[in-house]
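Might you be able to review the protein record set out just below?
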Amino acid sequence: MAFGVMFHHFHDSIENKVQGSISADDLNDIIFFLKKNYRLINASDFLTKASQGCLESDEVCLTFDDGLRCQYEFAMPVLKYHRISAFFFIYTSIFTDTPDYLEVYRWFRTRNFQHIDEFYSAFFNRLTRHKSTIDVEVVHKLVVDSDYLSHSPFYSTSDRIFRFLRDQVLTRQEYDRVMHLMLAEADCDCSDIQEKLWMKEENVVDLVSNHHIVGLHSHNHPTQIHKLSRAEQKKEFLENHRILKKVAGVKEINSMSHPCGNCNAQTLKVLDELGVTVGFMATMAEQQCFNRLKIPRIDHSVLLNEMRSL
């Protein structure tokens, strides 16, 4: 089955390497590997063929989530060198005065600590002080004994525990409260982080002028969007659709990726109503048949591990 390759963070040097980030050289190696072993096609061709249900099983495309500036700075030149276009799925609260802090929190936990496990230790300690009813050891056993996020092998056990607490135990308000306390304790300048983190509007315009395709990724990037009501989901994607069209200067947007790979039947109905013809998941989980709104993706880290094992 045809699939996409999913990218997020890039680094420009070993010093700036963080959990999950790759270099421009890594991207270059991945593209050469895909060209040798699959049919790597432009985003526009993938979009057309997927919409028509006529993708070949060995056809793949490149996708980038979250509107991160590092993608524009380090991935764009590689794409230009290979003359290949990609999908860029962007959540649009980043263009407002009240951006969602999901990526700010990630920046903080990967750059303000010597190792990610130091953050997890600090987070778990702060969490139990903030909400004493939570027993992290019980959650640890629950996650280890379950298959929670087992479809994403790039997550460590600590990654899975953290995400279970964030997405399944805490409310969004509780999680925000804990993270803001940690940011304040570290005297972290969030405005400075935001300035470095996301693409500017002119970067998005440049993507379009270079024949890349910009697509939806919700407005606020809820990690559990499938748990929202149909009305709340529609509000997320309507605002995403409205702002992204304005920022990118395009007449229509008909592609997207599901935030954190989550969706349900209501999500797909909302996307159909918006005229979205192609959507991407976040894993290569088996599907019984092709679904143009649930196209599988392989994470770049999984692909790199496969390449290096050959």
Remarks:
- The two ends are 22 Å apart (CA to CA).
- The first strand starts at residue 3 and ends at 7.
- The beta strands are 3-7, 39-40, 59-65, 87-90, 213-216, 255-257, 278-280, 297-299.
- DSSP finds 13 helices and eight strands in the chain.
